[in-house]
Structure formats: structure tokens, C-alpha cells
Cellulose synthase-like protein H1
Amino acid sequence: MANPIALPLYEKIPRKNTLQRLFDILIFFLLLSLLIYRFLFLKNHGLTWLLAFLCESWFTFTWALVISTKWNPVDYKTHPDRLLQRVPELPSVDMFVTTADPVLEPPIITVNTVLSLLAIDYPAHKLACYVSDDGCSPITYYSLVEASKFAKLWVPFCKKYNIHVRAPFRYFSSNPQTFGGSSSDFQQEWKRMKDEYERLSHKIEDAVQKSVPSDFTGDFAEFSNTERKNHPAIIKVIWENKTSLLDELSHLVYISREKRPNHPHHYKAGAMNVLARVSGLMTNAPYMLNVDCDMFVNNPKTALHAMCPLLDSKSENKIAFSQFPQVFYGGLKDDPYGNQLVVLFKYMGHGLAGLQGPFYGGTGCFHSRKVIYGLSPDDVDSVNEKMANNILSNFGSSKELIKSGANALKGKTDPPSNLSNSIQASYQVSGSGYEYGTNWGTKVGWKYGSTVEDVHTGLMIHKRGWRSALLSPNPPAFLGCAPSGGPSAATQQKRWATGLLEILFSKSCPIFATLFGELQFRQCLAYLWILMWGLRFIPELCYAALPAYCLITNSHFLPKLIF
Ligand SMILES: O=c1ccn([C@@H]2O[C@H](COP(=O)(O)OP(=O)(O)O[C@H]3O[C@H](CO)[C@@H](O)[C@H](O)[C@H]3O)[C@@H](O)[C@H]2O)c(=O)[nH]1
Ligand SMILES: [Mn+2]
């Protein structure tokens, strides 16, 4: 048998795509010949011919970007089984869940995501789950407190019977025999778990109906007199794993950062930066997973898969993040609105994986804390005091955060002995004015300035020369909700289109990142393809309107066939 130490933790396997390339090139040549033909006869025709020429030039250009991106697709094959043999001490992971609105994102959904995270196959004392609530909702907090009680039964049950789907709402919607077994012990425990989960759901439902707790006493006192966009920070350690035991529940922390009407809060990016800072003070894990509240873990080995490229010695200094594709459940058949992102991840994503790496997709992604703090790949092995001080010079006024930041950059783990020791500092770094005059949102952390903070942040990471990995394990690592269509899909796509254009027309533009940074040329083309997404409607609408226009004006834009 081969020495496990010598075996790689992951492999990049090129996909065979000769036929696909042939078709892609053929289409490209057909487009080019059409353009040449149009150009040669431009003088003999009117406006319609010119418009068609311009639209087709655009289509040819975008097709060239697509071909370049898809040319060398690769699949990542990860070997989580080898991980423990090669890396005896798994690193800690801080897991972030963001939620913003208890009505649009019902707490039961967030609770399921949190439960699925707490139950993953990873040493429990190495995990901490932080929930950021931009809705400042006592109901969300109450739901999490109740969920942590249920988790004490749910997590051991999942691990004992090796349950595959660890989000209870999803698990209990399937037949018990499918996952888990048929022994009478199992059947009994399954029944008990189901009853307990139903009790939890009812409690949460009641809380939503009656806005429990209405008196805001005791644990809920901090929520009294709060408005969603005007309230002080609220941080609560819901559960602390005090014994550092493997089979105890992981830490669970609730954070609602301070919001004030005159202070910009920078939406999700702002929330992520608060999460990075508070977790830096509390657990300071070298890796951070972030998920949207509606994206539960669907494969319990997810964290082990993600660690393979991040910890493999050949890539340790190069791969900044492991991204899992967004996969959705319950979506419309054949994805008529295109919001299940199949093309983006299945085709373009794997093509990107063969270049510098996939875009950061905002959820289902494991980041390295050092990279988020601003470290460059060349400096990883040589972080000295001066460099750390330089990076941390605009980290804000919290001395505790600067100390923990220096440790993170130097690769030291230094979690404080208990979480409550860092509560006071955590309140300080969650304040709405903490970031003034600092590098947060510019050089450090999640980037501000675009509503698509994920692509923006990923682009800035690639610009520094980092790579990223796209992992598509089977079953998919995470499953999420996509809007089913109608106005919500339109609003989402409008937000994406605007946010992508904000990046294109800013100093973060990928062309500058290639000219003045380390963004590879073909990676730059791929970024251009996605960032220009919001402009595509112009030539597409125009081209679609041409036939009707020609019919009305009795002109033509297609060559006449002469037999
Ligand atoms: O002020 C805000 C706004 C949003 N969120 C959270 O951010 C996540 C994504 O927001 P959502 O409204 O669901 O946007 P989507 O368009 O569905 O999200 C996709 O697009 C976003 C922007 O590119 C990415 O951040 C997401 O990860 C990606 O799933 C959710 O968990 C929200 O709760 C906040 O925490 N604070
Ligand atoms: Mn969403």
C-alpha cells in the first residue's frame, strides 16, 4: 500500500472536452465569418445592418470570453479519508450564518441551517457557530436558544447513526429507513427525535405568531426598545463548549451588530466583517466558513472536503478559499428563470477551476483568516512583527483584536480560556462607528462598495495572486433556496446586475487588477464576462427587436437567399 503521507489530499483532474472545444470553436468561426460578411457589405445597407453588425460583434466578443473560460475545465477530487492520516491536528473552523429579516427568512430556516452546521463530521471542540442577525429579532434569538437545547439530542443522534442529511426539516421529510437503519433502537430514537423537532417547530411558530417574548425581561431585556435599524449591539453566547470535549456541542454565539440611522452598515459585507472581528476575539480559528441562513449542510463531510486543498502542503501557500457550488432544492423544473445558476457553476465554474479558481459565491465557502486579513501569498512563510504590524495598523482601536490578528497572521492559535472574557471587546468591535478610519471594507475583510460583495471580495483576493478551489462532492455540500420566480427573482437579478456593474466601473475593475496586480489574464476575461452580465440586455433586446422592426419598415437584416 502506498505511504499515506505521500498521497495527495486532492487532485485536479482535467475534464475531457475535445468535442466541446470543437463545437465552441466552430460557433466562433461562424460568428466571425458573419461579422466579416456584414463588414464587407456595410456600405450597401442601412441602419438595421449596422445595428445587427454591432450586436453580433458583442455576441462574438462574449463568446470569446466564454470559450477562454471553459477551455481547460477541471474537477477537484478530494480525499478526506487521507486528511486525518496526514494532518493529525485539524484546524479550528469558525462558521458564520447571516440572517437579516425574520419575515423573509423565517427563523425555522436559520435554525435548520445552524443545526446542520453543528452536526457536521468534524471535532466539535474545533467548531464555533456565529449567527449574525441584521434583523435584531428576539424571535431569531429565542429560536436559536431553543435550537441549542434540541441540538444536544440531535447532534449525537446524527453522529451515532451516521445520518446523511442533518437539517432536521429535510431529514424528517424523507422515509426513516432511507437514512439511518431499521433496528428497533434506531426506530425508537428516530420517533423521539421527530417528536422533539416538532415540539421545537411549534415553539418557534408560536413565538412568530405571538411575538414571544412580549415582556422583554431577563434574557430578552436587551431587545426592548430596539428598532431594526437603530439599536446597540447585542451579543449572546448561547452555548459554550467549556470542556473542550470532542462530543460536546460546539460554541453557539448570537450577534446583532450595532446599527444607527446615520452610519452606513454595508449590508452583508458589514455583517461579515463584524463576524470576522468577534470570532477573532472569541475563537480566532484559522479558517472561516460562511453560509446564508437558507443554505443548510447537505453532506456531513463538507468541512473535511474543504480542508483538503487548504491544508495540502503543495497548495497551502496558494489556495485562499474552497468554494462549493450553490445547489438548490425545490426549484422549478429546467430552471426557466436561470436563478439556479447551473451554467455559472457547472460549466463556467469548472473552467475557472482550471485557471486561477472559482469566483467567491458568498455562501458555502471556507476562507483562510490570514487572507481575509490581507496577507499575500508571498508573505505567508515570512510573517514577521513588522509585516504583521503593518497589516494591522488600520485594524481599529481594539488592542485585543490587534493581538488576536497578529496571532492569526503568524499562524498561532490562542483561543481565550472562555468566551465571556472577550464579550466586552466584542461589543466594542461590533459598534457602528468602529470601522471609521480603518481598513475594514477596503484592504481588510469583506469589501464595501458593491451589493455583490462576494464577487468583489473574491476578485480582490485573486488580485493579490491567490488561487481558489471549486469542490463538488457527491452529495452536494450545501443545498439552498432560490426564488421560485416572479418579482423576487427579478429583484435579486437586478441587485446582482447593479452590483456587478459597480465593480466593473470602479477601481476594482479586473483590467486594473491584471495590469497592476496578480490577476491572471484569462481570469480577468472570466471576471469581465460576469461583470458585464448587466449590460447584455442591450444588444439582446435590440437584436430581438430587429425582425419586428424590419417587418414594419420593409427592410431586412439577414442576407437574402437567392436560389
Ligand atoms: O443587510 C444584510 C443583507 C443580507 N444579509 C444576508 O446575506 C445573505 C444573502 O442575502 P440575500 O438577500 O439572500 O441575497 P441573495 O441574492 O439570495 O444571495 C446571493 O448573492 C449575495 C450577493 O452577491 C451573496 O452575498 C449571497 O451569498 C448569495 O447567496 C442572507 O443570508 C442575508 O440574511 C445580511 O446579513 N445583511
Ligand atoms: Mn438568498
